[in-house]
Design brief:
The chain has 486 residues and is of the alpha+beta class. The chain has 3 domains: 287 residues, no CATH class; 120 residues, no CATH class; 59 residues, Orthogonal Bundle (Arc Repressor Mutant, subunit A), CATH 1.10.10.410. It is 40% helix and 20% strand. The protein has 15 helices and 17 strands. Strands 1, 2, 6, 7, 8, 11, 12, 13, 14 and 15 form a 10-stranded mixed sheet that branches. A hairpin with a 4-residue loop joins strand 14 and strand 15. The longest helix has 20 residues.
């Protein structure tokens, strides 16, 4: 039997506010336990929540970015359950009327060797508070409770069950991760729990309209874990059904060491949480003026910048899509390409997607932290274009610039001079090198004249070696051809 995989994701994004969603407590990862918990966070009697305006504005930003409806009036609800790290005995969330309704996220997805544009529909995005944290490892025979995280503002983003493979789910999650970081509404730090996913996974026979029984895999805080957990869960469910069993609706956890999911608890439905409007919080009213104010302060969105890169700089769809996956990379490209001009925009894109991307990934930084600034790289690329250095030599210069960590705008020129790497373009000097190489390699000359094209490449290689890589490749090739033909 052929099976179809059905996946929906719920993503908890921690919002980049200075304080918690309903209290003035600070938010700082790694603080001593229970040093960032106010009376509201501790749920002491009489302490009332006050809505954080900045959290609402970040939700509005997200809604605008995904073409969603911003609810003019939304309601906070109490989600009732009992757990040691939930001091109130309920979580303040949104249920029936969330602040962000609908929306979509589009992204490039490679399938069967072809890149296609996929769109995942969003059901909603709602504001809620995070719970505290149970500390199991720090106490022998006991569990500690840290309420620093309690009340941290979250925007939970829920998709429709639109994804059909783990790879597609990861591609969506990466696109969402890039978007919330682009908007600066979330720092995207998955290790610290700022961006974590719950995956709802089910399988059904191909052609069947009814969804299968779903299982939710909780708290996946890396893209690798997300993919591994979904793939394992798909295999588990298919094997279970094919062996005559049935899938039970439940919540599961992923064990990255054993690369498997395990049952955590039976999956609750909405009625199990006994949602009801929170009497301590009035409806959240968002007027058109407020939305317009937030929209005016938003950065240019990735889609708009991608289209502009194609029209203004002549980039291909692929190059523009890659460069706008990261806001820092997109801004770096625009800064360099503005200096070099449209004619060199393709070369700029190639360098950013190649050498620069490799260097920043190696050092674990983003392009905005690159020790080689946009003006410095622009000058280096201009020196390739005007024939001062070859592309190969430019890579050597770039490595030296990276190590130098200098803000000197003319650094490329200084290094070309001090390292003696200026390209040899003088015909007389090149002809002298060619004469020396031909005299030293008579066998290769004879083989070339006998029709062996590989011998020509060998001679070029020897000539480049003799010039220490500084010969102008195009000129050298043309002069060598002329010499061999004479």
């Amino acid at each position: 039997m052929q099976w179809e995989v059905v996946i929906g994701l719920e993503t908890h994004t921690q919002l980049t506010t200075q304080s918690k969603i309903f209290s003035g407590s600070a938010i700082r990862f790694g603080a001593e336990p229970n040093t960032q918990a106010s009376l509201v966070d501790l749920a002491l009697p009489g302490a009332l929540p006050v809505m954080n305006k900045r959290a609402v504005e970040r939700a509005i930003q997200f809604g605008l970015a995904v073409d969603a409806v911003i609810a003019p009036s939304s309601v906070f609800a109490r989600k009732n359950y009992f757990y040691p790290d939930l001091p109130k005995g309920y979580q303040i969330s949104q249920f029936e009327i969330p602040v962000v309704q609908g929306g979509r996220v589009s992204f490039a997805f490679e399938r069967d060797g072809k890149t296609e544009l996929r769109t995942v529909q969003l059901t909603r995005a709602h504001l809620e508070e995070d719970a505290g944290k149970s500390l199991h490892e720090d106490y022998q025979g006991m569990t500690g409770i840290d309420l620093n995280r309690a009340g941290t503002p979250l925007l939970e983003i829920v998709t429709e069950p639109d994804m059909r493979s783990a790879a597609e789910a990861v591609a969506y999650a990466k696109a969402l991760h890039s978007l919330v970081m682009w908007l600066d509404i979330c720092d995207g730090n998955m290790q610290e729990g700022s961006f974590r996913c719950d995956a709802n996974v089910s399988v059904r026979p191909v052609g069947q309209e009814q969804y299968g029984t779903r299982c939710e895999v909780k708290n996946l805080n890396s893209f690798r874990f997300l993919e591994e957990a979904i793939n394992y869960e798909v295999r588990r469910q298919i094997e279970l059904i094919e062996d005559g069993g049935r899938v039970v609706q439940e919540t599961r956890l992923y064990d990255p060491d054993r690369k498997e999911t395990r049952s955590m608890r039976s999956k609750e439905d909405a009625q199990d949480y006994r949602y009801f409007p929170d009497p301590d919080l009035p409806p959240l009213i968002i007027g058109a003026d407020w939305i317009a104010q937030v929209k005016a302060a938003m950065p240019e969105l990735p889609g708009a910048m991608r289209a502009r890169f194609i029209s203004d700089f002549g980039l291909t769809d692929y190059d523009a899509a890659v460069l706008t996956q990261s806001k820092a990379m997109a801004l770096y490209f625009e800064a360099v390409a503005t200096l070099t001009g449209k004619d060199l925009a393709k070369q700029v894109a190639n360098w950013l997607m190649g050498d620069l991307a490799s260097a920043v990934n190696r050092d674990g930084i983003d392009p905005g932290q690159s020790p080689v600034g946009p003006a410095q790289l622009a000058l280096l690329l201009q020196r390739i274009a005007d024939g001062t250095i070859s592309n190969k030599i430019a890579k050597e210069i770039f490595a030296a610039m990276w190590e130098a960590k200098s803000v000197e705008p003319l650094l490329a020129d200084q290094l070309i001079e001090s390292m003696g790497l200026k390209q040899i373009s003088d015909s007389g000097a090149l002809e002298a090198i060619i004469a020396e190489v031909l005299a030293a390699n008579p066998k290769s000359v004879e083989e070339f004249r006998a029709g062996k094209e590989k011998a020509f490449n060998a001679l070029i290689g020897q000539a480049m070696k003799a010039s220490r890589g500084k010969a102008n490749p195009a000129q050298l090739t043309e002069l060598l051809k002329q010499k061999l033909a004479s």
